Amino acid sequence: MTALSTNQLEAFWLPFTPNTEFKRNPRIITGAEGMYYRDQAGRKILDSSAGLWCSNAGHCRAPIVKAIQETAATLDFAPNFQFGHPKAFEAAAKIAALAPGNLNHVFFANSGSEAADTAVKIAVAWHRARGEGTRTRIVGRERAYHGVGMAGISAGGIGTNRRWFDALTFPASHLPATYNRAEQAFSKGQPVWGGHLADELEKIITLHDASTIAAVIVEPMAGSTGVLPPPKGYLEKLRTITEQHGILLIFDEVITGFGRLGAGFAAERFGVTPDIITFAKGVTSGTVPMGGAIVDRRIYDQFMTGPDHAIDMFHGYTYSGHPLAAAAACATIDLYRDEGLFERSAALEPYFEQAVHSLRGTPLVQDIRNIGLAAAIDLEPVTGAPGKRAFDVMKTMFFDKDVVIRIAGDCVAFSPPLIAEQSHIDEMTGKLAEVLKAAA
Ligand code: PLP
Question: Which of 108, 116, 312, 414 has the highest count of CB atoms within 10 angstroms of its CB?
Fold first, then answer.
């Protein structure tokens, strides 16, 4: 494969990317297998972030590829409005089987953003369907990422993603972020400090009244803003308070689902069952876009009141439960089971934790956090140029060290595929240490 010319790079406006710089200095990936990418020159590049937190089974895994290829040749599309095809039902059943409690019904979307929109709409519609139509407010959290749709910008807690679109947001309140460096620096797993921050929900309820609040949506572990594990007791408290006030609890498990925290869902790891779980990414190991919301039986049942000819929920996407995505999801979930990848993720966690925390004391490292197979390393920013430090580190890691890393602001996040070996963990952390020492 030959390198792309400047002209060929022009048309594509890359998302969440400084395009002008990228097109001067492109980072092009042309192949992938297992733990590695390849570029045009055939260089092997380690994937330290499972794509964008999605390729949990590793890249181009044969059973998933086969399922997608066969489905493309036999059922390229079938409508799921008023009709259906077997793989969508099978995928829904497999996903629901991984979810805790009575979360038995799956509404399909095509991304994490659509999953968040779907969950929020179901929550508001459910309250209305049972006669509490005043419950429309959503409670999110500072430093939350729920994608870039309606729910993502309204309930999300990233200023840069919201500020230009404020006029488009729906009424939302925000819990404080659970991270506090002074209290939690270099904590391993769930921090001890911070469980009390869930009590802030009581203040929001006092201010707005429970009768106006439909749902609280949180990532059990905030991923995109730098791996913020929930403080001990925090999720349990949110569950208690929401239950007391008739508010639905939504876990956005777009990152934490499918083994990232050593279980099917983080809800299982933390022993807290929400009313709705959103998922995407790992459901197909990133191979075909798919997302969705898994809802509690009582929510689903509320909509199933007939009459026979009337649609029960006015929501859905042309590609909800698309045959290729559904086939990929079934093959992926089977692969997770057959290779015991959730258990493997849990077994690797202690080694991963020790490896990332060995970076403590390396120049420019200000804090390190980890849980499951996710970790973040906060770097000292360049004065007056927020984000530049990690951006430069990312480029050096790619061009000089053959490692793709994910950055958020001045934070480096590691979230390797669940098939990672200890040697891959050593490679990503060792090379990051070399780059930081050279940059200091
Ligand atoms: N929710 C969470 C927790 C995420 O981490 C992401 C993406 O990283 C999303 C939602 C949005 O997913 P997508 O980019 O597929 O729309």
Answer: 116
Token pair for residue 111?
């991304």
Which atom of ligand 1 is nearest the CA belonging to 115?
Answer: 10
Relative to the CA of 278, which ligand 1 atom is closest? 1
In ligand 1, the atom with minimum distance to the C-alpha of 280 is 15
The string of DSSP codes covering 144-163 is ----SSHHHHHH---HHHHG
What is the whole-number distance in angstroms between the Cα of residue 254 and the centre of ligand 1?
Answer: 6
Nearest CA to ligand 1 atom 1: 146
Of 224, 228, 261, which is best to mutate to test ligand 1, by the most ligand atoms within 8 angstroms of its C-beta? 224
Residue of 150, 254, 256, 277 to test ligand 1 pocket, by largest number of atoms within 8 Å of CB: 254
Q: Which ligand 1 atom sits closest to the C-alpha of 111?
A: 15
- Determine the Cα–Cα distance for residues 406 and 414; give it in Å rounded to an integer: 7
CA of 73 to the centre of ligand 1 (A): 30
Pairing mode, strands 374-379 and 403-404: unpaired
Per-residue pLDDT of the chain (440 residues; tens, 9 = 90+): 567 777 899 999 999 999 999 999 999 999 999 999 999 999 999 999 999 999 999 999 999 999 999 999 999 999 999 999 999 999 999 999 999 999 999 999 999 999 999 999 999 999 999 999 999 999 999 999 999 999 999 999 999 999 999 999 999 999 999 999 999 999 999 999 999 999 999 999 999 999 999 999 999 999 999 999 999 999 999 999 999 999 999 999 999 999 999 999 999 999 999 999 999 999 999 999 999 999 999 999 999 998 999 999 999 999 999 999 999 999 999 999 999 999 999 999 999 999 999 999 999 999 999 999 999 999 999 999 999 999 999 999 999 999 999 999 999 999 999 999 999 999 999 999 999 999 99
The residue ranges of every structural domain in the chain are 6-57+340-439, 64-338
List of residues 6+ apart from 180 with CB closer than 8 A: 193, 194
Q: Which CATH number fits domain 6-57+340-439: 3.90.1150.10, 3.10.350.10, 1.10.1660.10, 1.10.287.1700?
A: 3.90.1150.10
CATH fold of 64-338 reads Aspartate Aminotransferase; domain 2 (3.40.640)
Spacing, Cα 255 to ligand 1 middle (Å) = 7
